[in-house]
Specification:
This protein is mainly alpha-helical and 268 residues long. It has 2 domains: 121 residues, Cytochrome c-like domain (Cytochrome Bc1 Complex, Chain D, domain 2), CATH 1.10.760; 92 residues, Orthogonal Bundle (Cytochrome Bc1 Complex, Chain D, domain 2), CATH 1.10.760.10. It is built from 11 helices and 2 strands. A hairpin with a 5-residue loop joins strand 1 and strand 2. Helix 4 packs across helix 9 and helix 7 crosses helix 10.
Length: 268
């Protein structure tokens, strides 16, 4: 150990020792500066991109939404305020084609979206910039197949959703001409966003009422019900005894009329 120190001490007096140490110090200083400057630069790029997305979203909003929701999204006589609804509400309404709509007096129906995914994200970013609200759901975060529980989801659905959406999630009629839409074929992220935003007649389900894990269980149950085969024959829409009774009444009454006509023709 002592001999090694003596050798290093001898090299310290070499004429190239000072230039070599200077080069090493400069390289280290440059590397440190480069690493330290990369993080703020990346952050500035992200801020710039977000700012440009919000600007584009505002342009789309003024062109396609402000006539009903107001120039500053403050709402009006025919449309509610969007301040504080968050990106999730915009992603749900615009992504499912419910908005924009021509007649605000009618219930918004699911249809082909007017805006593509990039435009929808820009609109959501602009509305989210107005006030805090629920964030749009990332589909990759919804691991309902892994984290959900089908049995628990069925119980939660029957207790919280079946009175409107039907016990088989096929949808149903509400008061004043409104209806709860079917949940068959709906993208999981839109089901989740509907639960946290409460669109139209639907209540909001906070994480205290239904936890995120329980929401995933509900989605898993809905997807299981969607793929469940009709082992008993024709499903008749799975809307309960109404269609079954209508079919039985129609066929039974028709059969009775047919028998009465046949007996009358035999009596002549």
């Amino acid at each position: 150990m002592t001999s090694g120190i003596k050798k290093l001490s001898r090299y310290r007096r070499h004429r190239w020792a000072a230039p070599a140490l200077l080069v090493v110090a400069l390289i280290g200083l440059g590397t440190t500066f480069s690493v330290a400057s990369e993080a703020p630069a990346a952050q500035n790029v992200a801020v710039t991109q977000q700012s440009s997305q919000i600007t584009e979203g505002k342009r789309i909003f003024l062109q396609g939404c402000s006539s009903c929701h107001g120039l500053n999204a403050e709402g009006g006589a025919i449309a509610p305020s969007l301040i504080g609804v968050g990106a999730a509400a915009v992603d749900f309404q615009v992504g499912t084609g419910r908005m924009p709509m021509a007649d605000m007096s009618q219930q918004a129906m699911r249809k082909k979206p007017v805006y593509d995914a990039v435009q929808t994200a820009a609109l959501a970013a602009y509305v989210a910039s107005l006030a805090p609200g629920p964030q749009a759901v990332d589909p990759t975060s919804l691991n309902y197949e892994r984290d959900g529980n089908t049995a628990q989801g069925g119980t939660l659905f029957r207790n919280n959703c079946a009175m409107c959406h039907n016990f088989a999630a096929q949808g149903g009629a509400l008061t004043l001409g409104k209806y709860a839409p079917t949940l068959m074929g709906v993208d999981p992220k839109y089901i989740y966003e509907a639960m946290i935003t409460g669109p139209q007649s639907m209540p909001k389900f906070s994480d205290k009422t239904i936890s995120p894990a329980e929401k995933l269980s509900i989605i898993k149950w809905i997807k299981a019900a969607q793929s469940e085969p009709s082992l008993g024959g024709a499903s008749l829409g799975r809307v309960g005894p109404v269609t079954e009774g209508l079919l039985a009444w129609t066929l039974g009454l028709g059969l009775l009329i047919g028998i009465a006509v046949w007996l009358a023709s035999k009596a002549r």
